[in-house]
Amino acid sequence: MTQKIGFVGLGAMGRPMSKNIIGKGNYELIVYDVVDRAVEELVAHGAKAAASAAEVAENSDVIITMLPNSPDVEAAVLGPGGVLEGMRPGSTLIDMSTIDPATTRKVAAAVQAKGCSMLDAPVGRSTANAEDGTLLIMAGGEEDVFEACKPILSCMGSDLVHCGPIGSGEIVKIVNNMLTGIIVTANAEALTLGVKAGVKLETLLQVLRSTAANNGHLHATYPVKALKGDFSPGFAVRLAYKDMNLALSLGGQLSVPLSVAASSTQLFNMARGLGHDNHDYTSVISVVEECAGVKVRID
Ligand code: NAD
What we know:
The chain is an alpha/beta fold and 299 residues long. The chain has 13 helices and nine strands.
């Protein structure tokens, strides 16, 4: 039987993820975004348009949300015209946004009170992985809900990890993005120092990639983005800054000191001040370049 899927939030990630649902499964898709153009693009791919998130939910067995941050999820699910208004008992909400786990638990309580179920299922990897359906999906929620949602999650991701009860997917995702943000800023400082001191960038990359200083961003993000002078996202500075702050907030709630993360967060904040809010997060290197008076670029 054809399953009815709803998708709310058709941005850099939601757009390719929802296209994969149409492309890969026996699903009917109904979509909503506050930006009309994003909806029109999905309609051209075979989705139906809804006039609100509530209308998406009225017509769906499973509703997926892919929104920037906690207030956006609260507005789109709990707010007027939101998902909750339209959800039918027995339906499932999968929130794939990266948000505060406390908001996830608040939304889940409201969803469950309506006789529905919920998973938090934020994603790892990049927009390119969203396009080819190879995201890493970190899910929190009841095991049986996770099992029931596996076929739809498999349209979007190649690696599905059940992390624990509701909110656990968000916790794992926040920890991951805190570490990756720290690595991105550490690379910016290390590479700028080496170049300013007179060594060729290619030599630095060759050595750093073959010692314990090696990390994925020296291979996959920096060389194809900021080091080539390409600041297009990718993963935007504004989202990296948001995720660093989610980590700092969680650390504050739990009395876990995050001094290195706090310092990295301020470099992202400086990048925002230099106009990089919507640029790829590797553009954080611009802050260090600006201070050092050099450009760190692959020839
Ligand atoms: P985005 O800003 O490109 O897209 C968000 C979309 O949500 C936009 O189209 C916006 O119009 C829509 N929206 C906002 N409020 C809405 C509402 N109330 N109702 C309906 N639509 C609404 O963000 P993105 O890059 O797609 O990221 C989405 C989530 O995925 C974020 O939490 C982000 O941290 C996470 N993420 C992003 C990446 C990446 O590489 N971009 C990777 C992994 C995870």
